[in-house]
Write a structure and sequence with these properties.
Layout lengths: L1 E5 L4 H17 L4 E5 L2 H6 L7 E4 L2 E5 L5 H7 L3
Parallel strand pairs: 1-2
Antiparallel strand pairs: 1-3, 3-4
Helix pairs in contact: 1-3
């Protein structure tokens, strides 16, 4: 599983990344978490509001920090 956390590095983006990493650890799933700060790559994924979370190519949220419960649902726990 590949999870991308998109954002330029603002506090909300860091919070989203922290929650994603915590959820992955809690669920015990094999996932690679990648931080993406490149605006061109974000645009190619169709994301124009950050933070955003993309799981296996599917944009799961954009423009807000997701809850840990949301993330656990997306990763199949």
């Amino acid at each position: 599983m590949l999870i991308k956390v998109l954002g330029p590095g603002c506090p909300k983006c860091h919070e989203a990344e922290r929650l994603v990493r915590e959820a992955v650890a809690e669920a015990g799933v094999a996932a690679e978490v990648v931080k993406v700060g490149d605006f061109q790559e974000m645009a190619m994924l169709g994301v124009f509001a950050t933070p955003a979370v993309v799981v296996d190519g599917v944009v799961r949220c954009s423009g807000r920090v997701p809850s840990k419960g949301d993330i656990l649902g997306w990763i199949g726990r």
